[in-house]
Task: inverse folding
C-alpha cells in the first residue's frame, strides 16, 4: 500500500527525517508513534507530496507518488484548519471537490455523515459558529468524503470528549472492516494498543521500533518486572541488570537488561527491603515508548536493527 | 486544472458576496471622479450663471463702451453679464456704495465696479464682489474694461469707434488635440483629468486586489487550512487558483464599471453638450482592462511572495513597501509622462514591467505610441509575469508551511534552491 525507501529530509542543520524506510501493507490500522519533533509530521507530509524528500523514494498504491494519488488518500493534519466564514456544507463539498468528487456526490455524502455525527442542524451555519469539537468532526468528515483507500490521521482524537471519541473510533473501525488502510499517528498509547495491529516508533527522524504490536510486547515483556517494594528505590537502580525503574507510587515497573536472571533481581531486592509483590509481566506500550525514547542514541539502532 | 478552478471559484465567491465589494465597486469611481473631476468641472461650469453687476461710472462716458465690450453670452444665448449703471447724481458716493454692498450681501447683485474719473490715465478700477474667486468672470470683466479704456484712449487720437473696436479685437485660442492626424475636439485639461481618473483606478485596483491575494495566503496560513488544501492539490494550483479567483473579483468590478461608463457615455452623447466632458473611447476601455489584467497578474505574484513569507498582516505591511513603491512612483511621475508622453523617460518606464501597466496605459491615453512599443511593453510584462510566477510559486511552496520567525532574504534564496 505504502512503501518508503531511504527517505531523508533536512532543514538547515536539523535532519527531520533520517534515512527512513517503512512498508505499510494493505488493510488494517498502522500506528505511527514518536515524541514531539520526532519527524512524524514531516514524514506524513512527504507521503502526501506536500514536501519533497531530499533523498529516497515513496511509493503509494504500488506506483511512485503522483498528483492523482492524492485523490485516493485522506489526510487529517494535526493542525486543523477550516475557512471560518464558510458555511459548513459548502466547506465539506469544496474540500470534496478538490479531491475530485463531483459536487452533488460530495453534498450527498456530507449530509449523510453530518446526520450520523449529529451535525444536521448546523449545515447552513458558518464554521466559526461551531464549537471546537464540532469543527473537528467536520474536519474528519472532510478527510473521508472522497472515500479514500489510504487514510492518514494525525492525532484524530485530541480535544474530543469521550462520546465523540468513541463515535470517530467506530468510524475508523468501520473503515478498517471495509478494507481501507489507516495510518494513525498519535501519542495516546492506550488507543494504539487497542486499535493498531502494527506500529512504528520514530525518534529523531529514525525508526526505533517496528513490527506487529503483540510481537513487540512479547519481546519487551520478558524483561519487565512489577514490584511492590518497601525500601530504597535508588538501591534497586544500582543492580547491574536494571535498565530503568519507573515509579507508579504503589508499584514499581522495572525494566531489565537483556538476559538478566529475574531471580537474581528478587534476591537483591529482598536483601535490601521488603517485597510484597513480585511479578514478571507485560510491559505497557507506554513504558516501551518512554524507555525507547529515553534511551535515545546508538543502542537504539542495534535494537531497531534486531526488530526489523 | 479543474481543482485550480474550484479554488478560484471559492475565492471569487467569498469576495464578490461581501458587502464591501459592492460598496467599493460603487464608491470607487464616484470618489475618484469627485476627487479629480469636481474641481475641474466647477471651474468649467461656474461662469455659466448670469452675473449681475452694478457700475459706478465716475467718468460719465465709459459705461456704454464697457457694456458693449462685455458682450459674452451664455450657452442659452442670454447675456452672461447684466450691467446696471449707477449714477452718483449728487448724493454721497459712500452712501451709494453701502447700499450696493447690502444688495451684494443679499445676493441681489453679484458685485459692483467703481470706475474712477482718471481711469484713462491711471488704468485702475476696483471690483467689489462676494466671490472674488470666480476667476473666469473676473478675467472677462478686466479685459472688457481694458478694451473700453483703450478704445477711449484711441478715440482721443481721432479714430471712430467701429474701427477701433475692430482693431483691438482679441484672439481666442482654441486648443485642439491631434490624434492620428485628425483633429479631436476636447480640451487638454479634460484629457488630463480623465487619464488621471483611469490611472488612479488602475493604481487603486492593482493595490487593492494584489493585497487581497497576499491577505488570502496569510489567512490560509493562520487558519492552518493550507495543509488540508495541499494534501489535495499542487501548491502551484492553489496559488494560481487564489490569484485567478481574486483577480476575477477585480475583473467583475471592472465589468461593472465598464458597463456604467458605456451607459454614461451614450447618455452624454445624447445630451450633446455634455460629451465634451467625457474623454475616453472604447479603445481606452479595452487597454484599461488589458493593463489591469496584466498588471494584476504581475503584482499579485509579488504580493503572494510577501504573503508566503509572512505570518501576520503587520509583518506583511512592512514587507509590502518595496512592492507598493513602484506603483506610487508611477503616480508621482504621471505628470512628467503626461507632458512628454513619447520622451525617453516615459518610453523606458513603459517597458519596465513594474511601471508598464500604468505608464503604458497613460501613454496610450494621451498620445497613441507606435504599435511595436505597445507590443514590446506587453511582451516584457508577460515575461515578467512568467519569471515572477515561477519564483513566487517556489517561495510559496516552502513558505506556506513555515511558521514562526520570518525568514530573511538569505533563507528565501535557500528556499528557491530547494523547491
Result:
Amino acid at each position: 500500500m505504502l512503501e518508503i525507501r531511504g527517505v531523508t529530509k533536512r532543514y538547515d542543520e536539523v535532519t527531520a527525517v533520517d534515512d527512513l524506510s517503512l512498508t505499510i501493507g494493505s488493510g488494517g490500522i498502522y500506528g505511527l508513534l514518536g515524541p514531539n519533533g520526532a519527524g512524524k509530521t514531516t514524514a506524513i507530509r512527504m507521503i502526501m507530496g506536500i514536501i519533497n524528500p531530499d533523498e529516497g523514494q515513496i511509493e503509494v498504491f504500488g506506483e511512485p507518488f503522483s498528483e492523482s494519488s492524492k485523490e485516493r488518500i485522506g489526510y487529517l493534519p494535526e493542525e486543523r484548519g477550516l475557512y471560518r466564514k464558510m458555511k459548513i456544507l459548502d466547506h465539506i463539498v469544496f474540500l470534496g471537490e478538490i479531491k475530485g468528487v463531483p459536487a452533488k456526490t460530495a453534498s450527498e455524502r456530507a449530509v449523510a455523515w453530518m446526520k450520523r455525527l449529529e451535525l444536521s442542524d448546523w449545515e447552513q451555519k458558518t464554521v466559526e459558529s461551531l464549537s471546537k469539537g464540532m469543527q473537528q468532526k467536520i474536519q474528519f468528515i472532510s478527510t473521508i468524503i472522497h472515500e479514500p483507500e489510504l487514510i492518514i490521521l494525525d492525532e484524530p482524537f485530541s480535544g474530543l470528549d469521550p462520546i465523540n471519541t468513541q463515535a470517530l473510533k467506530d468510524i475508523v473501525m468501520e473503515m478498517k472492516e471495509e478494507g481501507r488502510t489507516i495510518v494513525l499517528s498519535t501519542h495516546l498509547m492506550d488507543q494504539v494498543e487497542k486499535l493498531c495491529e502494527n506500529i512504528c516508533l520514530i525518534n529523531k527522524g529514525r525508526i526505533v521500533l517496528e513490527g506487529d504490536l503483540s510481537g513487540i510486547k512479547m519481546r519487551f515483556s520478558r524483561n519487565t518486572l512489577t514490584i511492590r517494594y518497601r525500601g530504597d528505590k535508588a538501591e534497586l537502580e544500582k543492580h547491574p541488570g536494571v535498565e530503568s525503574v519507573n515509579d507508579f507510587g504503589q508499584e514499581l515497573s522495572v525494566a531489565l537488561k537483556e538476559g538478566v536472571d529475574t531471580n537474581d533481581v528478587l534476591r537483591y531486592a529482598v536483601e535490601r527491603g521488603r517485597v510484597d509483590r513480585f511479578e514478571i509481566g507485560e510491559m505497557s506500550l507506554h513504558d516501551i515508548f518512554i524507555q525507547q525514547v529515553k534511551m535515545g542514541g546508538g543502542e537504539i539502532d542495534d535494537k531497531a536493527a534486531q526488530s526489523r | 486544472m479543474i481543482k485550480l478552478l474550484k479554488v478560484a471559484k471559492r475565492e471569487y465567491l467569498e469576495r464578490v458576496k461581501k458587502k464591501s465589494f459592492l460598496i467599493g465597486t460603487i464608491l470607487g469611481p464616484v470618489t475618484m471622479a469627485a476627487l479629480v473631476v469636481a474641481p475641474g468641472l466647477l471651474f468649467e461650469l461656474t461662469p455659466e450663471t448670469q452675473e449681475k453687476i452694478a457700475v459706478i461710472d465716475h467718468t460719465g462716458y465709459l459705461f456704454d463702451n464697457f457694456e458693449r465690450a462685455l458682450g459674452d453670452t451664455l450657452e442659452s444665448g442670454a447675456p452672461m453679464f447684466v450691467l446696471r449703471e449707477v449714477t452718483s447724481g449728487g448724493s454721497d458716493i459712500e452712501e451709494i456704495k453701502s447700499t450696493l454692498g447690502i444688495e451684494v450681501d443679499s445676493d441681489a447683485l453679484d458685485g459692483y465696479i467703481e470706475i474712477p474719473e482718471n481711469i484713462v490715465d491711471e488704468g485702475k478700477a476696483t471690483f467689489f464682489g462676494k466671490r472674488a474667486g470666480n476667476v473666469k468672470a473676473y478675467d472677462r470683466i478686466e479685459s472688457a474694461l481694458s478694451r473700453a479704456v483703450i478704445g477711449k484712449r484711441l478715440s482721443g487720437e481721432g479714430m471712430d469707434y467701429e474701427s477701433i473696436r475692430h482693431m483691438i479685437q482679441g484672439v481666442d485660442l482654441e486648443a485642439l488635440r491631434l490624434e492620428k492626424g485628425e483633429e479631436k475636439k476636447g480640451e487638454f485639461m479634460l484629457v488630463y483629468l480623465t487619464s488621471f481618473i483611469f490611472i488612479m483606478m488602475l493604481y487603486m485596483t492593482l493595490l487593492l486586489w494584489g493585497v487581497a491575494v497576499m491577505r488570502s495566503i496569510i489567512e490560509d496560513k493562520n487558519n492552518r487550512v493550507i495543509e488540508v488544501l495541499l494534501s489535495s492539490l499542487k501548491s502551484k494550483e492553489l496559488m494560481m487558483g487564489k490569484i485567478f479567483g481574486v483577480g476575477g473579483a477585480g475583473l467583475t468590478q471592472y465589468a461593472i464599471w465598464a458597463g456604467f461608463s458605456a451607459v454614461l457615455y451614450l447618455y452624454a452623447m445624447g445630451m450633446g453638450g455634455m460629451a465634451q466632458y467625457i474623454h475616453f473611447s472604447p479603445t481606452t476601455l479595452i487597454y484599461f482592462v488589458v493593463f489591469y489584467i496584466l498588471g494584476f497578474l504581475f503584482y499579485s505574484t509579488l504580493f503572494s511572495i510577501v504573503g508566503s513569507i509572512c505570518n501576520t498582516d503587520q509583518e506583511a505591511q512592512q514587507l509590502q513597501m518595496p512592492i507598493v513603491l513602484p506603483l506610487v512612483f508611477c503616480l508621482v511621475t504621471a505628470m512628467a509622462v503626461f507632458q512628454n508622453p513619447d520622451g525617453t523617460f516615459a518610453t523606458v518606464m513603459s517597458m519596465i514591467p513594474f511601471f508598464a501597466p500604468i505608464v503604458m496605459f497613460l501613454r496610450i491615453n494621451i498620445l497613441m505610441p507606435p504599435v511595436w512599443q505597445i507590443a514590446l511593453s506587453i511582451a516584457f510584462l508577460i515575461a515578467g509575469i512568467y519569471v515572477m510566477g515561477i519564483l513566487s510559486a517556489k517561495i510559496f511552496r516552502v513558505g506556506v508551511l513555515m511558521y514562526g520567525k520570518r525568514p530573511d532574504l538569505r533563507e528565501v534564496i535557500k528556499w528557491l534552491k530547494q523547491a
